[in-house]
Inverse folding.
């Protein structure tokens, strides 16, 4: 395990800093069902952190807790050294935490460009009255935000579809647009809920490359959920393994791969 | 030019002016429907309520005067001052914003994720509540509204057309002003939706709530904003209609005329509401002029609905409504 105070440099030269988010003893219940049970882990600045586990393990619930869609009954979330009060999803987004969804949540009727521009909303400061009266300033702001968006579009190689209504796009491209919208927010923490679900091998490779490039070039901290073990092991610096709402493993991919509990959870245990 | 044709042109122009008012009411429906999926039956009553409040404030009426008099045995009606039109309009707008906030705080916040039919029922309740509330607050008598807009025949058009064709068109000044104001309002609303931060957020909320939340948009803020905008549109519509035919409770029935307008234009399109309103306005006046005499008149009562029915059969999404894109 890494010491949480020091800065480490990975084999490929990326810097991983101190703790960005600390999740402490989270318990989430829906009525009588316990979705997450007393789970703790941390996410460090600059790393790619994966959360894996079989179906129903509580991975998506955990992501929803972090992004404010669910509110845990117990536990604390510390972000950038401060304890976070219970927040609504839009407040979490304004703190600099962007996310994508397992089932894609895009604005289907709007163009790709407009969709990605909504990612900039948290960065737009000019108020309603100012926009009506002081048109120049609003325009300057729009231009500045547009530049960021264009960079993201170039980066994810979706220039050719920028004017297309999202509803017309195939699945794989929609996933990429959703990533673009999250990136446009220039998040301090990027949450990806099964970014490669339902993709073919080629699309998966593309997406893996984008995730690595985002982390590498922008230094974005990424927490992702993924089903595909192979992908996760290649991508991530550290992995949390969940099963039946509990954390059963935490460490580097190699450590996790050799953890007996994890092997049991994935392959099943022989009862004798 | 033959007299019949000139007369038809005049009827068309007057129809356009009437259509502008239909369009204004329909616009209020579209705004709320787009952003929250709520079909706001109370839009017409909001126009009535706005007009009542505007008159009440201008005339210095004491709100709830009947109630106060009944309870305390007093006899108060007016404060005895008059508020200038512009200030009264701003104050009324403030009332509409408070109303927007209250509607969301006390009704729709408790109905999040409910079926559309339930939201619709809630707005029916709201409509009757507001009608009663407006009655209680300002009284039920017909009021004259004079916000200083020009009224009566436009003599310039009358003279020009008389000199050109030997027949003077009768166009009301108020209708011209109403059309200009409506055009400015619509242009401003479209610019707002397309080019401002809040407008983009509004379109985002209209499209997908979950996604909107994830990019940092507060749904409640957007809903209050949209209801305020709809309140503003209602105020303009109510003021125009009130200036034309007095502020009376039949004003809320205009809302029903907005229904065929919406079916024609599409429930989600701002330009659709405008074009739909104009088509209905012109259509019903021309139909009455051309076909009315053959069938005994009074076609204005049903023409709009029949036209809407035809549209429902052949183009259910309306002229400008969003086509549903579905990938299989």
């Amino acid at each position: 395990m890494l010491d949480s105070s020091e800065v480490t440099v990975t084999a490929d030269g990326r810097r991983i800093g101190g703790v960005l988010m600390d999740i402490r003893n989270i318990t989430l219940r829906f009525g009588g069902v316990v979705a997450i049970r007393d789970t703790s882990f941390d996410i460090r600045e600059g790393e790619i952190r994966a959360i894996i586990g079989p179906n129903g393990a509580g991975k998506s619930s955990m992501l929803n807790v972090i992004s404010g869609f669910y509110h845990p009954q117990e536990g604390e979330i510390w972000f950038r050294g401060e304890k976070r009060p219970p927040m609504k999803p839009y407040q979490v987004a304004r703190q600099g935490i962007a996310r994508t969804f397992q089932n894609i949540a895009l604005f289907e009727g709007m163009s790709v460009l407009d969709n990605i521009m909504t990612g900039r909303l948290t960065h737009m400061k000019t108020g309603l009255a100012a926009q009506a009266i002081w048109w120049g300033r609003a325009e300057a702001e729009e231009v500045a935000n547009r530049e960021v968006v264009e960079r993201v579009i170039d980066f994810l190689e979706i220039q050719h579809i920028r004017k297309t209504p999202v509803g017309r796009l195939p699945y794989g491209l929609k996933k990429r647009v959703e990533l673009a919208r999250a990136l446009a927010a220039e998040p301090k923490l990027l949450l990806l809920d099964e970014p490669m679900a339902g993709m073919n091998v080629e699309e998966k490779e593309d997406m893996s490359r984008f995730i690595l490039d985002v982390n590498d070039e922008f230094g974005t901290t990424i927490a992702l959920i993924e089903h595909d073990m192979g992908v996760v092991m290649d991508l991530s610096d550290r992995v949390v393994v969940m099963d039946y709402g509990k954390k059963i493993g935490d460490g580097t991919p190699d450590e996790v791969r050799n953890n007996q509990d994890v092997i049991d959870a994935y392959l099943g245990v022989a009862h004798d | 030019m033959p007299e019949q044709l000139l007369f038809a042109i005049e009827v068309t122009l007057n129809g356009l002016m009437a259509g502008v008012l239909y369009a204004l009411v329909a616009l209020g429906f579209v705004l709320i429907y787009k952003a929250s999926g709520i079909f706001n039956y109370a839009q017409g009553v909001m126009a009535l309520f706005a007009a009542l409040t505007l008159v009440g404030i201008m005339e210095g009426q004491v709100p709830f005067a009947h109630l106060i008099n009944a309870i305390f045995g007093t006899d108060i009606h007016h404060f005895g001052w008059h508020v200038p039109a512009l200030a009264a309009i701003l104050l009324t707008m403030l009332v509409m914003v408070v109303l927007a906030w209250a509607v969301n705080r006390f009704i729709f916040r408790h109905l999040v994720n409910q079926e559309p039919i339930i939201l619709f029922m809630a707005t029916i309740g709201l409509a009757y509540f507001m009608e009663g509330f407006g009655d209680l607050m300002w009284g039920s008598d017909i009021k004259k509204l004079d916000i200083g807009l020009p009224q009566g025949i436009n003599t310039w058009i009358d003279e020009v057309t008389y000199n050109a064709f030997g027949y003077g068109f009768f166009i009301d000044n108020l209708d011209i002003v109403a059309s200009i104001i409506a055009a400015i309002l619509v242009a401003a609303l479209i610019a707002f939706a397309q080019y401002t931060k809040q407008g983009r957020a509004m379109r985002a909320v209209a499209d997908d709530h979950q996604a909107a939340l994830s990019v940092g948009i507060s749904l409640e803020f957007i809903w209050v904003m949209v209801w305020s905008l709809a309140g503003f549109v209602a105020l303009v519509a109510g003021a125009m209609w009130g200036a034309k035919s007095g502020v009376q409770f039949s004003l809320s029935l205009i809302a029903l005329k907005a229904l065929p307008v919406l079916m024609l234009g599409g429930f989600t399109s701002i330009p659709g509401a405008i074009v739909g309103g104009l088509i209905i306005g012109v259509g019903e006046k021309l139909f009455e002029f051309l076909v009315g005499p053959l069938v005994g008149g009074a076609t204005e009562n049903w023409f709009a609905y029949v036209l809407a029915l035809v549209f429902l059969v052949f183009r259910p999404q309306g002229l400008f409504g969003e086509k549903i894109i579905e990938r299989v």
User: Anything to note?
Assistant: The mean pLDDT of chain B is 87.
